[in-house]
Design goal:
alpha/beta; Rossmann fold; 7% strand; single chain; 5 strands; five-stranded parallel β-sheet; globular
């Protein structure tokens, strides 16, 4: 009796399956809709696909800085000397609250940030600085360089734009060859014309400028004749061209963020300039640079 019952059940099941197949054939479609094959593993199709890792991490855990005297905190603490503890990028000065401090805390900034900037450096020096920086394997590298390429003994001595581009590309290539996932924050070159305009009213600043600080822009600061104005305009145009290069080269690297011209556009006033040379940032100015960098690094989207 049990054998006959199982046979009857199997026959009924087969009849039901045949009827279902006939109905689907009349409708002209398969069990999953359209002409698509059924998934091989229904349970796998129900699982959510893994989210791709973000290209930009807004909370990097280590930082290295490359660049020139601005990143070294030159003239921020005393006349004609570096003050790295006041650096906008890696300093530990409480009044500055550097980018490293904002991202890592003061202890983290002291242990996991490194400053490879060198006063007087030009863009040609950046590949070498970058080679030293990558040995630390930082998750973020900051770049602020280019002012000294425009601040030369004469307009004719300024770094050609093509060379500036090649040197910056080489620096990024040096980074990418060693650390393909490291992030880069690139600050624009400051508005040197604005710095001249702000500092020229101070007699002390002009005496310091005469020692050789940015002569292409700051020589004869009181001269307003066509030759002097033309010279300064050429320097300003070169700075604008450098910033265009920084933006274009950075845009080709998906882990690079340019500041959108924030540093160039910032109107450094008396409080933001060194009381000794009225050209380099004071501690207040260094803090403003840190603020701008932090906004860019922690933004969900890069600036246009």
């Amino acid at each position: 009796m049990r054998k006959r019952g199982r046979g009857a059940f199997a026959a009924a099941t087969a009849a039901l399956a045949a009827g279902t197949a006939a109905l689907l054939g009349i409708a002209g479609c398969d069990a999953v809709g359209g002409d698509s094959p059924a998934p091989k593993d229904a349970s796998a199709s129900a699982r959510p696909s893994p989210k791709p890792s973000p290209t930009w991490d807004t909370s990097p855990r280590s930082l290295a800085a490359v660049g020139d005297s601005i990143t070294r905190g030159f003239d921020a603490c005393s006349v004609l000397s570096d003050c790295p503890e006041a650096s906008w990028a890696t300093g530990t000065d409480a009044g500055v609250k550097s980018l490293a401090v904002r991202l890592l805390g003061r202890t983290g900034a002291a242990e996991r940030s490194w400053n490879y900037a060198v006063t007087g450096s030009r863009m040609a020096d950046l590949p070498g600085q970058m080679a030293r920086a990558v040995t630390r394997k930082p998750e973020l590298v900051t770049v602020l360089a280019g002012a000294n390429d425009a601040c030369r003994v004469s307009v004719s001595a300024m770094t050609p734009v093509a060379e500036f581009r090649a040197d910056f590309e080489e620096a990024l290539h040096t980074l990418r060859s060693a650390l393909p996932r490291a992030q880069v924050y690139v600050a624009s070159v400051p508005d040197l014309m604005r710095l001249w305009s702000t500092g020229r009213a101070n007699p002390l600043s002009k005496r310091v400028w005469s020692l050789g600080i940015c002569p292409s822009m700051l020589a004869d600061p009181d001269a307003l004749d066509s030759a002097a104005n033309g010279r300064r305009t050429q320097v300003q145009d070169r700075v604008i061209a450098y910033n265009k290069v920084l933006k274009e080269v950075c845009a080709k690297d998906r882990r690079c963020r340019f500041d959108g011209g924030a540093v160039f556009d910032y109107r450094f006033g008396e409080a933001q300039l060194s009381q000794w040379d009225w050209f380099h940032p004071s501690k207040n100015g260094q803090a403003r640079l840190a603020e701008m960098a932090y906004r860019v690094v922690t933004a969900k989207r890069a600036a246009d």
